[in-house]
Design brief:
The chain contains 10 helices and 7 strands. With 315 residues, the protein is α/β, with parallel strands linked by helices. The protein has 2 domains: 225 residues, Spore Coat Polysaccharide Biosynthesis Protein SpsA, Chain A; 67 residues. Strands 3-2-1-4-6-5-7 form a 7-stranded mixed β-sheet, sandwiched between helices. Bound molecules: uridine-5'-diphosphate and magnesium ion (MG). The site of uridine-5'-diphosphate (UDP) has 17 residues, from strand 1 and helix 3.
Length: 315
């Protein structure tokens, strides 16, 4: 970890982006010249198999003051690349930007203005998106579902171009496909978020790494995010609620079957009901146990949790 404070950090996750990186760095340098020289560009090579590593090395040699590189041993995914960048970043404002030149660095001042206006996270909105028809339509669907479940009114959750107050970026524990839900996680942690429309460009070199199939995997992560954010604080209430209902129903059914057997000597044709009763009791007990185990996790993790407090006022 570097403690050398910067005004701006720009994190660029890159997976096979050798042709794009030099052009992108030139564009960023041109923009930053007019804003603030106290910035850093952190390129995270996510296990590329092309010449990305050499390109980063060369860019670093040409501008050691501003450029840093992080090399992954293998392709761990964009979320992990962002997390590694956040850990290394020392900027007051931390940007993330795709490596493929689709995001236009000229938008950087607009993000900074929003952060300086008091927002904790500013997310880009590719209003006029320059991708394939399939990609654009699946993205509309993804954003609709995420917005519906999270009740957060954003148009473009998964835009790679975002700016954060440092504390917000560092509070995100990203892995898997969770980068798609950063605004949901941040909002749930009580941060103030907004979005701005940005200029989006066509990919010039290299290929998109996210087709519709990879994209569908992301929906499982929506479930994770919803459970972690909405129910994480009281898992016993969430699982225990369903568990208690199942246990109650199961007990009533089992009691009925027991009475039937005691008073009539047979359970007649009630075998399916008998099985359903037993199943409900078992599921109920399991759900309640799951809730209680969840509570233990919350208790343990809350011990280390210092991310809830905005500030402490004291002498
Ligand atoms: N990326 C990455 N690791 C991966 C896949 C993608 O670091 O496993 C980077 C990629 O190099 C790019 C950004 O994430 O900078 C967005 O990827 P891409 O442009 O392929 O996605 P799209 O814009 O097509 O959704
Ligand atoms: Mg792209």
């Amino acid at each position: 970890m570097n403690n050398n404070k910067k005004e701006i950090s720009i994190i660029i996750p890159a997976y096979n982006e050798a042709e794009n990186l030099p052009l992108l760095c030139n564009e960023i340098t041109a923009v930053m010249k007019n804003i603030d020289d106290n910035y850093e560009i952190i390129i995270v090579d996510d296990g590329s198999s092309d010449k990305t590593e050499e390109v980063i090395e060369r860019l670093f040699q040409n501008d050691r003051k501003h450029i840093k590189g992080i090399q992954f041993r293998s392709n761990f995914g964009k979320a992990s690349a962002l997390k590694a960048g956040f850990d290394e970043a020392c900027g007051r404002i931390i940007f993330t930007m795709d490596a493929d030149l689709q995001d236009d660095p000229k938008e950087i001042p607009n993000f900074i203005a929003k952060i300086n206006n008091g927002y904790d996270l500013v997310s880009g909105w590719k209003q006029n998106r320059k991708d394939s028809f399939i990609k654009n339509s699946s993205s509309i669907f993804f954003n609709f579902v995420t917005s519906l479940f999270s009740k957060i009114k954003l148009h473009d959750f998964n835009c790679g171009f975002k700016a954060y107050r440092s504390e917000v970026a560092k509070s995100l524990d990203l892995y898997g496909q969770l980068h798609r839900y950063i605004p949901v996680i941040a909002k749930n942690n009580g941060y103030k978020i907004t979005e701005i429309p940005i200029h989006h460009r066509k990919r010039k070199f290299g290929k998109s790494k996210y087709g519709p199939v990879r994209f569908l995997n992301g929906f499982l992560d929506l479930l994770t995010v919803l459970v972690l954010t909405k129910y994480f604080k009281r898992p016993a209430h969430f699982f225990g609620g369903f568990g208690a209902i199942a246990l109650m129903l199961g007990s009533v059914v089992s009691l009925y079957i027991t009475c039937l057997k005691l008073f009539t000597g047979s359970i007649q044709n009630k075998l399916p009901l008998f099985i359903a009763g037993i199943l409900l009791v078992m599921v109920g007990v399991q759900l309640i146990s799951l809730g209680l185990i969840g509570e233990m996790f919350v208790k343990i993790s809350n011990k280390k949790d210092d991310g809830l407090i905005k500030k402490i006022i004291k002498d």
